[in-house]
Amino acid sequence: MHTLVIGKFYSEGFALHIAETLADMGHQVERFEPGIKSGRAKTLFGKRLEQVRAALFSTTDNLQYFRRKRARTLWRNVESNQFDVALVCHDFLWPDEVARLKEHVGAVALWFPDHLGVFGKGYFMNAPYDALFFKDPYLVRVLSDVLDSSVYYLPECCNPAKHTLPIESPIPSEFRCELTTAGNQHPYRSAFLKHLTQYDLKIWGNPAPLWLNSPWTDRAFQGRPVHNHDKVRAFRGAKIVINNLHYGEIEGVNVRAFEAASSAAFQMVDWRLGLGQLFRDGEELVSFKNMRHLKQLIDYYLPRDSERDQIRQAGFQRVMREHTYRLRLELLLETINQRAAGYPMPERP
Q1: 122 pLDDT exceeds 70?
Q2: What angle is formed at CA 147 by the lines to CA 141 and CA 149, rounded to 5 degrees?
Q3: In angstroms, rounded to a whole number, what is the distance separating the alpha carbons of residues 315 and 226?
Q4: Phi, psi torsion values for 291, nearest 5 degrees
Q5: Which of 47-61, 97-111, 131-145, 217-231 has the lowest mean pLDDT?
């Protein structure tokens, strides 16, 4: 199958995992990256420069002249090839651009990897996609009642090629700690982590925005993000991975839940309705309902190495068996081609 993947291809980028997995599955894959190439900077100055470039880019992206000029490579590629499927890995395209894409491609689908808090202008809501995939069951229920497109539930997943290491692999001392987390330092995460400063906490990720005044997270911040095998080491080096979900995650879970499991790490995650269908709570990971509950669980599990080991090993087996990019993409392509049912929705209580 000849597939076009439209998205961001920085290290650990959603579209990069998809493109590499499709290629490993034997598909012919072409890539197109809209906007500026971000997520490549290695230094703090470089990351700040990327933020400035992104802000400048956004000021002109709504102007037809600039938008058409920037998409010339895409249209040349589409018009000179015969693609069976175009998979858009975020809400990058305007409705008229999706319509133009469909003139040359067998099927056009969107797999949206984020929560509703980053819907932005919601271009997809009026775009003629053949299928829309979301990781939150709540979004699927709401949108399928309104949109003409076929809307499906497709949770996130892990990439075993990047998110696993042999169990005997040594873990450097820089990753050893009681608690860890990895991800962007947004205001809610900063406020959340303020409650955990009494523990040996390590935070991995990009630097916090300049306006975010959070000295408590600054002390735990390790100065850099971790990707791929380094993320595995960071997760496995901690006794507990704290996975606090953004409040925009209504019923679904984030990609970190799958990456921590594939790292063979012990994780605690915010409870969500869709969690129990993906993992056995208390057996493959542990969920918490509020901050008081989380601290009780931390204090219980920190000294209990054998219980943590049993849970993290079971979580690893589950994610390898059911939650990989290959399995998700097989279902996505089957759904597009045959209008199958997609991933089963969790039942509401």
Answers
A1: yes
A2: 100
A3: 21
A4: -65, -40
A5: 47-61
Confidence label for 214 from pLDDT (cuts 50, 70 and 90): confident
In DSSP terms, 203 is beta-bridged to 181, 221
The angle at the Cα of 139, spanning 204 to 106, to the nearest 5 degrees, equals 95
Residue 288 scores a pLDDT above 70: yes
Residue pair 235/241 in contact (Cβ under 8 Å)? The answer is: yes
Identical fold at 2-34+71-157+324-338 and 161-322?
A: yes
pLDDT above 90 (res 62): no
Q: Where are the domains of the chain?
A: 2-34+71-157+324-338, 161-322
CATH number of 161-322: 3.40.50.2000
Report pLDDT for 265.
Answer: 98
**2-34+71-157+324-338 belongs to which CATH class?**
alpha beta
Give the integer Cα–Cα distance in Å for 9 and 13: 5
Quote the CA–CA distance of 110 and 24 in Å, as a whole number.
Answer: 21
Residue 271 corresponds to which amino acid?
A: W
Q: What phi and psi values does residue 86 have, to the nearest 5 degrees?
A: -115, 125
Which residue spans within the chain are E strands per DSSP?
Answer: 2-6, 28-32, 83-88, 105-112, 131-134, 150-153, 177-182, 201-204, 238-243, 267-270, 286-288
